[in-house]
């Protein structure tokens, strides 16, 4: 490792994600390889899931070489490391911002929050597309000058809705989808196409209160803390890998309306944090759980 | 109201708890009464459960009168307020410390914590009795010089165990019971006898993960936050009115053992806070929920 | 008190704030008065500052009377209660939304956040005016269709800037001012004119790190928790009454840039909560401290 | 790396701490070395202080070799790694529990808490000694059967007190000292002798409210959050490297006594966490800041 300060040479930064069966000498081999191509490791975190015997690693490296070529690195990585260790791996350059589609229905608070953070330059991603099953939030999209597509979606026209969604996602070259209080089921086909690439915000502290009306259930139970959970969407309702959770204190003096209002604060910030973690390639999924290198 | 500083007159302090059907002029009537007997209100909090139409109030008052008589006040209160408003009420003098029995099994961390706080003078209560279905913690009780009674309790000898428990509770004139990780079912008879007077600590963020091994379930689900819940014991397992909850963040890097260790921190402090709130008469129960005037 | 459900009679709701020297029978007198004019108390909270001997109270009442007249109530209140008890008081009807001016400079994250929440209907106030000493954020104001006024403000043209600010505040009939990371000093004249009506967000956990560059100071000190503080503006820099604070955990692994980014999350939510509390008339100021009835 | 499950071979576990100037290939060299001696890395975390250009690493490794010899490993490590990279390093076997001295005065809540956790088996350390400048807590030490030494300490007899302390620390072979609300200055000589090995708990959220009576200052300032800070003791009062901090919410309704009581909860848990982190060799100090690998 070597610190590269404000020198004149332009530095290229890449992020590497790895998981594979746990074996001897993985870290040594990967760090040797980085050293061999003159890279400086500026971040390294690793995790071993002892129950599943799986090894996870995330690295950020800087390269100053002028002849630097990401494709050559990828090829070398595959040959020298991924094949012998039977690794699953991803490599991203800093310039590659993922493209995110926002799915919304009628609630606007998460939409305003994400678009505000996006406009303020806090999210390393692009939002080329907003999809909704209602027309209500078209004006919000317009304010932020983002294309808005109305895609009706009900049980009766599910196949047609799904096709329209898929066409749009393809057309806009979308990498991942964020459900910002989108109130419709995501079809299994779409889940398969975007495996671990669809982020939902559920308005409870999962696994407590899955499904509809969680604030009403929380109020009825008399809990002293409410929560929100952001997770990847899987076939099981509210059962996908959890990315981020947060909580707020409530008391007997709070009405259901207070729960809902406090919950909106939570939903916003939990979703924003999950989106940021995903866009920064800090999450990995295995066995319906996430490894979050934050 | 009137502040009473460091004057020489000895002040008598009482706490009043009230609940009744919500009606006009309750607060005016109660505060008029306190004013009429020369009391100073030093704390007043009230709550209306709009769904159930129930009114709750907690007051702390000071009296300087030398002819002060708590029994006369109680009689007057019954005649002038409780009867016309059909109130449920309790009045305590500051001197009346509730007597608490600790039920334990083999886990010692909550026991050490409560006895430490008790010895440090932080809990306004007396602990005349520790009951256990194992002998393991007798030495801890001995360290703190508190009577320890071994009461075996299994399915086969339930009736006998219950009888022994009841005899002890009666003998030591116990007001309320704290289950400090006591790993046996409380019998319906005991629950009835100590309705809303038995406090349990459950090692999860209820209603998530009720029952056995909640940390294992939380680990398997991949949650990012674990919790602990203190509640009054009812006939439904882990379904009683919640008094206090708290949480701690966990990540993929934590093992089940880490969850359990972090959980022990939570269990301790959540149980201690619940016990303190109860001993200070700051909790009221209605409709399987608590009103906590803190 | 009496619950008024979904009946047909339109209910009028008012909020009453009181503070005065602590005396006997204040609560009884006020609640008697409310009962006498057929009001239902739906919220009552009170506080006695024992050191200063000051009594504070906040009430929300509902009236169903068709002949209801807020001016008569105010007159009666003055005659029957405020004069004899020498009270400071305020009464608001639910319809009176306060008018808020936003002061900004170049940071846009708090501005986006407040305008997003405002547009999502979460803040009970009106925003007729944004004032800035830079042109940078005009486009954000335009997106949300709120008048934006550029008022240059430097040491050299302080008097002129202050005059322009005051003219605008008067023209738009502004009730209170929010400094959403406005990076200029507020003049003593403006502070006097809007005493306890100017809310600032400071990006540290006051009183730690007042003044400029608090995240840099926090980083240098190696703190494990950073914070943000919303307070009323007084003549002393960052010394005004604190309305709301919140914190976030940091570690050695976070850079100054991480501190700043995490801080932006905090600043946003702390400021939003303070603005909401103020707009709901839940704050009272006394002796450079706030009473917050939340 | 390789998982070693419940096999029969006894595993030896060591912890390695390293810091040195940041250079290329440190991680590769260290992990290569571990691989070369058949060690399995079960934990690795590293940090680069970019401002100071310092590299920090913490590893936990397991060895199954029957001919395993810690002294040989230490020698090899020095020759092959520490010398070429000019490293500061420490290696501990799992069996080496550090010996801790508790310094106390009259407050007993932190003492009870630590001794309770210690007795419950939660702290990987030994407590052979309690030192106090008062006799008050001798009975607590006796309950837990730990030697208690009364060492008077005032300005007049500073040299004598210091000598007695040093003699005791030497006699009991003490590795680190915990000031559990010890209310006397630690002498520079002792600080030098136990550099970064003396842990204090300060009852405020440093750097706010250093010095005496922080709860009173916090109350006067009207903060909405109070805190506690555990730090290593240096020559500057309350200015040493921070290990752990935590906070609790307060409101206008809390008196100074409430602040103090809530603060006791904080002090206890913050100190306990700091002690645990230190005993597990998870802390490193550099430039008056801590790196905490937790």
From TrEMBL, chains A, B, C, D:
One GO term of the biological process aspect: one-carbon metabolic process
Location of the active site: 238
Domain of life (superkingdom): Bacteria
Formyl transferase N-terminal domain segment(s): 99-275
Coiled coil: none
Known pathway: Purine metabolism; IMP biosynthesis via de novo pathway; formate from 10-formyl-5,6,7,8-tetrahydrofolate: step 1/1
Function description: Catalyzes the hydrolysis of 10-formyltetrahydrofolate (formyl-FH4) to formate and tetrahydrofolate (FH4).
Full protein name: Formyltetrahydrofolate deformylase
Species of origin: Flavobacterium urumqiense
């Amino acid at each position: 490792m070597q610190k590269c300060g404000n020198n004149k040479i332009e530095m290229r930064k890449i992020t590497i994600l790895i998981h594979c069966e746990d074996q001897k000498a993985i870290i040594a081999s990967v760090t040797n390889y980085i050293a061999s191509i003159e890279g400086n490791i500026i971040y390294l975190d690793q995790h071993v899931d002892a129950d599943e015997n799986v090894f996870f690693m995330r690295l950020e490296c800087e390269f100053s070489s002028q002849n630097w070529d990401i494709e050559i690195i990828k090829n070398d990585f595959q040959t020298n490391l991924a094949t012998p260790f039977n690794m699953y791996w991803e490599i991203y350059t800093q310039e590659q911002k993922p493209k995110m589609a926002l799915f919304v229905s009628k609630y606007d608070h998460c939409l305003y929050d994400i678009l505000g953070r996006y406009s303020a330059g806090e999210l390393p991603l692009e939002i080329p597309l907003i999809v909704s099953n209602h027309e209500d939030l078209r004006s919000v999209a317009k304010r932020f000058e983002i294309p808005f597509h109305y895609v009706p979606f009900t049980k009766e026209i599910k196949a047609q809705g799904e096709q329209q969604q898929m066409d749009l996602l393809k057309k806009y070259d979308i990498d991942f989808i964020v459900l910002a209080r989108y109130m419709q089921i995501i079809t299994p086909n779409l889940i398969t196409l975007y495996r671990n690439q669809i982020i939902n915000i559920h308005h409870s502290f999962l696994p407590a209160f899955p499904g509809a009306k969680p604030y009403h259930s929380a109020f009825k139970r008399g809990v002293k803390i409410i929560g929100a959970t952001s997770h990847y969407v899987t076939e099981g309702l509210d059962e996908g890998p959890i990315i981020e959770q947060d909580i707020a204190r409530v008391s007997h003096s709070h009405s259901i309306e207070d729960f809902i209002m406090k919950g909106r604060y939570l939903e916003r910030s939990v979703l924003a944090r999950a989106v940021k973690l995903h866009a920064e390639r800090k999450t990995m999924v295995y066995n319906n759980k996430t490894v979050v290198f934050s």
